[in-house]
Design brief:
213 residues, single chain, mainly alpha, transmembrane helix, Vanadium-containing Chloroperoxidase, domain 1, globular
Amino acid sequence: MSRQSPRTTLLLALPSALLLTLVAIDWSPLLALDEDTARTTHRWAVRDRDLTQTFRVLTDWVWDPVTMRLLCAGVALWLVWRRAAWWTALWLLVTCAVAAVVQQAIKAGVARPRPVWPDPVDSARFAAFPSGHAMTATVVCGLLLWLIREHGVRGPRWYGAVAVATVSVLGVGLTRVWLGVHWFSDVLGGWLFGALVVAGAVLVHERRSKVRP
């Protein structure tokens, strides 16, 4: 099986750093794109209340960061119970914790305001960039897909897992913009930083596995 290359981590770090810089300096073309997208999706959200309510359920319960982290915790317990994979279980939990710390540190550092509407359809706490929902979903789905692949899952089950992960990661990003609590670049940042955390974590895991007796 192919191994994670440090080049992949670097390739993800570059666009992540670039987007972070553009958001931090309030780059006008990016702000304009975010505002245009936000106005359009908010207009749709106000008009289609049934779909908006469905998105609220998905984002608050199915794809919520707490739900995602509990899923990781459950997988970690399963790894210990079924295979005595203490290192991998600990690695999984620590990676999720590191991702949460990185996310909150960037939010605090950038302190980007969320969209404000006279007729909001939802609300959220903390700063906007990056989207915690998008980042957490990317980290959890990325780590679990890698574990599934490492455990030899192939064929229809593998493609099914990829499909569920893809829908979850893209879907949660869509819900955050639709509900008017994030700019599109917040979601993009969540995806990029989440992928970066996964790439770095996989690199650590594989290097640790090489030196184990």
